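Course assignment 3, question 2. Fill in each field.
Student: A.L.
Task: Predict the tertiary structure for the chain below.
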Amino acid sequence: MKFVDIHFLLSVHNLSQLPAPSLPEIAFAGRSNVGKSSLMNTLVGRKNLVKVSGRPGKTQGLNFFEVTDTVYLVDLPGYGYAKVAKGMQDHWQSLITSYLEARATLCCVVVILDLRHEPKQYDAQLLSWLREKNIPFLPVYTKVDKLSGNERVKNARILDAGHSIAPDQRILFSAVTGQGKDELERALASFSKVD
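Answer field:
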């Protein structure tokens, strides 16, 4: 599946604004500044479709992008950033949880983790919750270009062990080199049943 012919559809701030559930949906989740926007831009082959911000907490709604008549890509607000007001964090949490639990057309949550960092509590909570709710997910370890080959292997093993992920269940990805892009495209096609 190639993610071309894509456009921004809308930003959802409450569930009543969700588009009609007419296409499969793939959501992208990750802690603030984990490389989510860069990953999505690399996936769709565009530099600025998904805005990359130096300011964590910039994404404040569920941002829907439509790959024309094929699939929705949904950019979720980053989590775990303390400088966003507590009320805003609580609203995001409620919105994201309700969306992930209730959306019948959601076929996969891409959970993005920075390969440079040890397992984090927020990531562990999300992965555990997705397993508990039987929501399909795909872990993607980003920023692999920032580590040497040996460090990549070591850090991937640490994340695998910390989050109970088998090596064949996750993808190593770099927005800089494009490593993992083809693998990610194939995986998302299989989740969404789209060629």
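Instructor remarks: Strands lie at 6-12, 25-30, 62-67, 71-75, 106-114, 137-142, 171-172. Residues 86-102 form the longest helix (17 residues).
Grade: pending
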